[in-house]
Amino acid sequence: MAGVGALRVALDLCGCMGDAFANEAARRNTFDVMMGGFLQSVDSRTHIVGNKSKGNTDRLFRINGRCMIIWEDKVEMGHTGDPYMQVARSYDLACEKMNENGVTPDAPVFLLCVVGECFCSLFAPYTDICLKVRV
Question: Which of 23, 37, 93, 114 has the fewest other C-beta atoms within 10 Å?
Fold first, then answer.
């Protein structure tokens, strides 16, 4: 039954995440509503600690303490910075203190960039995983 639930959530997300949102928080709130608690063990704290600096990302998903997804969301390109650079910097910080940030060298961390209603990119550094969607 989990596969059916995952498909339902995926279809719900596809049906609404491409819509225009007033701001990044509105998109994240809609994402939470559409997920409907599907990933019960997700911790969405956003704080990342590096060796000499620290930062926040729009979302940082941890499952059972392991960092799985770093998400940057922008209303439009150039609105408040480059989401690719921001998500890459967040990943760089997370790798500086792997244990503290829940990054493990044998498992990918997915980097998700969402830019307005027209572009989404999901990739995992050091793997062959890359998905780009233009609406």
Answer: 37
Read off the pTM. 0.71
Nearest to 60 by CA among 98, 110, 133: 110
Cα 9 from Cα 3, distance rounded (Å):
10
Rounded to a whole number of angstroms, the CA Rg of the chain reads: 15
**Token pair of 49, please?**
């600690």
Total residue length of the chain = 135
Q: 72-86, pLDDT tens digit by residue?
A: 877 766 656 777 888
**At the topology level of CATH, where does 2-134 sit?**
tt1808, chain A (3.90.1570)
Please report, as a single letter, which amino acid is at residue 117. E
| The pair of three-digit structure tokens given for residue 99, joined into one six-digit string | 């244990």
